[in-house]
Amino acid sequence: MTVDAHATADLPKPTADHDQARADLREHGYCVLAGVLDADEIDTLRGSVLRIAERERDSGTHWSSNGNQKSFMLINHGREFLDLVENPVALDFSAALLGPDLLLSSITANTARPGNVQQQLHADQQYVPEPWPYVSSMNVVWALDDFTEENGATVVVPGSHRQGTAPRPDAGPLVPITGPAGSAVVLDGRVWHAAGANRTESELRVAILSHYCAPFIRQQENIFRSIDPDLRRRLTPSQRRLFGYDIWSGLGVVNGLPRDWAHRKDRSGPTNADGIFPE
């Protein structure tokens, strides 16, 4: 069930004002940042997603659920996706709640096809034991088409991030998150939401989900095993840190801590103990 327009008057709307968007995120558990991607970026990303999806259907390796097609581990498929996960707006908004050492948890494309059904209501950090007094993950949903109620825009229970639990059977009314292509929809990992039902006859709704998590959380995608070896060798230091190759507070060591860290109080930083990165 969705709510009428009068009831949504005070809910987040697409905005280019980052202060307003931050206030929306705190109060409602989500915000809509308009105009983050320009027309060329939208065209490049959307075209790439559709080509990947077509190849996967042709090869029989596609993954579909509820009438939506998902394509995983997009960083293996082009420079444009590497740039997207390092988008400064996405990192800035996510780091505000997760801290500066956040990790990329996954990057996935979702194409909502006509005739699909609404996804099950969920929160992105449902793997964290309840209660949730603080956020452990964030999702940045990149709208590569206009998000409308008719084409399956993400639906949300505003303010549900303050419940500190997974969705309950008596969850409140669902509100569609609408906005123009190029918007970044930022979701607190605790907020209850779902991909909506695409009720159009022929209109695809294409989106990319950049999921980030706190540095002590296991990532959704096992990037170390999934990444193309040639890409791994070309990663920049900032990408290695974002993908989880660095040590953080003594976590993620490789055959123990580096010997020259023995007297350091800060047990965080890059390591190449296994020699997998070019010197």
Automatic annotation (TrEMBL):
Alphabetized UniProt keyword annotations: Dioxygenase, Oxidoreductase
UniProt-listed Pfam families: PhyH (PF05721)
One Gene Ontology molecular-function label: 2-oxoglutarate-dependent dioxygenase activity
Keyword set includes NAD: no
InterPro entries, sorted: Phytyl_CoA_dOase-like
Keyword Oxidoreductase recorded: yes
PANTHER family xrefs: ECTOINE DIOXYGENASE, PHYTANOYL-COA DIOXYGENASE DOMAIN CONTAINING 1
Protein name: Ectoine hydroxylase-related dioxygenase (Phytanoyl-CoA dioxygenase family)
Organism per entry: Nocardiopsis mwathae
Taxonomic path: Bacteria, Bacillati, Actinomycetota, Actinomycetes, Streptosporangiales
